[in-house]
Design a protein that fits this description.
The complex is a heterodimer of chains A (130) and B (122). With 130 residues, chain A is an all-alpha fold. Chain A has a domain of 88 residues. In chain A, 70% of the residues lie in helices and 0% in strands. In chain A, helix 1 crosses helix 3 and helix 3 packs antiparallel against helix 4. Chain B has 122 residues and is mainly alpha-helical. Chain B has one domain: 3 helical TM bundles of succinate and fumarate reductases (Up-down Bundle), CATH 1.20.1300. The longest helix of chain B is centred in the C-terminal third of the chain and has 30 residues. Classes of the chains: A mainly alpha (130), B mainly alpha (122). The interface between A and B is large, with 42 and 45 residues.
Amino acid sequence: MSQSYDRGLVEDFGRWTEFSAGMWAWIFHKFTGWVLVGYLFTHIAVLSTAMSGPEVYTSTLQGLESLLIVRFLEVGLLAVAVFHILNGVRLLLVDLGIGLESQDRSFYASLILTGAIVVASVPTFLAGAV
Amino acid sequence: MSQRYSSFEPKGTRWLLQRLTAAFLVVVLAFHFMLLHFVNHAADVTFAGTQMRMQTAGYFVTMVAFGLTATFHGVNGVYNALVNQGIDGTAKAVVKYGLVLAGLLLAVQIVRLSLVMAGISL
């Protein structure tokens, strides 16, 4: 017998203290998705300086990379991207019927793995800026 | 029994494309991060280096495909998120056509930019 659970609306953020792991996974995936699509438009806008000439492109990218705040924002972007990738793989597997009984654990694993990858990457991202 | 609860069944073209682009993006986004932050440091990127990479046919095709699939996945994802929030009627139509326009403009810019980076003039 299949069972359904009425967890209420996940869109009703005011009741966030009642959210289950699955609802947090949904919210984090939406949040990271919004950040990534915003970054996609920004990234293409910055790279489009190439259309103003090679020197403009190189000086723009290297100028941005010389700012410490940009390095920290890149670490944040990595965190967002890695979580979206890992949770996205989890969602694809769930869509294929794999790991249905361990969705909570695979969400927690996505979070932990994201944290580990981001912490391990910090030295590479900050190299030359601090 | 677990297969009974799988949602992997036909749910429309956009539903399937969102998953197919996701599977592609998982691989290419990870590759993009590795190549431009770990193999080549982002602070060392120059136009000459970018052009050298983009003049390799396989890399060029992969990056154009990366940009176009990311555009579809992102714009379609925003539309799905807003529909989940409950927009309908005129608001839904405005969002739909606004996102289609934004997506098309971005896609065109990605192709134009890729050609400039590769040094290809049409």
